[in-house]
Design the sequence.
């Protein structure tokens, strides 16, 4: 396989980031599959690396605490499956389950042979660092990589909350988060991904690919501190 070097677009991305303004009153943070099924080192059925999960939860907790204090809406979208449908959503899921089961289990839940995020299971619970807070919204009808398909997320964003900026964090950078970024872009939202608050169980290369694709093509990639800076700058300008 031919090795391809990642091109340096830092100057362009930096210029795009400087252009971005974020009004907290028109912003919603959407957490994507930040549940125990990915992030709990004991109960995860499709786990990210433990250190990556800890990094994501730590930064996400800090950022969500900040965001709630600024009146920014927080929405949690969680994949939940009936046992009868888990392997029927797409043939790739069934094939992956067979192949991945041949590897050594990484968590206690995998050793027990627990299926991923069945309705009512502990795996579908948000990590306690993430929420839900009393004013957060929870959507638990996600079935695919899409956070919009088959959910009421678009109705909540546009009709109920009236936002123009969607901020994404969660798992996996290169699948559900990237899919959400495409969808958010196509629906006309300013789309931001927080690099400190995303990770991928598929490896660092695809994590990096997801962030590169978003930052260069779809929206903005900011650190948690850069996001906070954007909010404070807007508030200062508006004072």
Sequence:
């Amino acid at each position: 396989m031919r090795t391809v070097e990642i091109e340096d677009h830092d100057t362009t991305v930096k210029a795009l980031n400087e252009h971005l303004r974020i009004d907290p009153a028109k912003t919603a943070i959407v957490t994507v599959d930040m549940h125990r099924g990915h992030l709990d080192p004991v109960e995860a059925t499709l786990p990210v690396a433990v250190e990556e999960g800890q990094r994501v939860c730590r930064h996400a907790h800090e950022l969500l605490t900040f965001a709630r204090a600024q009146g920014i809406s927080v929405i949690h979208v969680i994949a939940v499956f009936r046992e009868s449908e888990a392997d029927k959503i797409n043939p790739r899921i069934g094939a992956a389950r067979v192949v991945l089961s041949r590897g050594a289990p990484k968590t206690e839940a995998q050793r027990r042979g627990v299926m991923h995020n069945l309705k009512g299971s502990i795996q579908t619970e948000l990590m306690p660092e993430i929420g839900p807070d009393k004013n957060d919204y929870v959507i638990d009808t996600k079935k695919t990589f899409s956070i919009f398909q088959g959910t009421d997320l678009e109705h909540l964003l546009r009709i109920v909350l009236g936002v123009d900026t969607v901020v994404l964090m969660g798992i996996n950078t290169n699948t559900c988060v990237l899919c959400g970024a495409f969808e958010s872009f196509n629906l006309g939202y300013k789309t931001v991904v927080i690099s400190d608050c995303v990770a991928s169980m598929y490896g660092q290369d695809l994590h990096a690919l997801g962030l590169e694709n978003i930052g260069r093509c779809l929206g903005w990639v900011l650190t948690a501190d850069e996001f906070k800076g954007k909010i404070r700058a807007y508030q200062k300008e508006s004072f």
Remarks:
- The chain has a mean pLDDT of 92.
- The chain is about 40% helix and 15% strand.
- The radius of gyration is 18 Å.
- Residues 50-69 form the longest helix (20 residues).
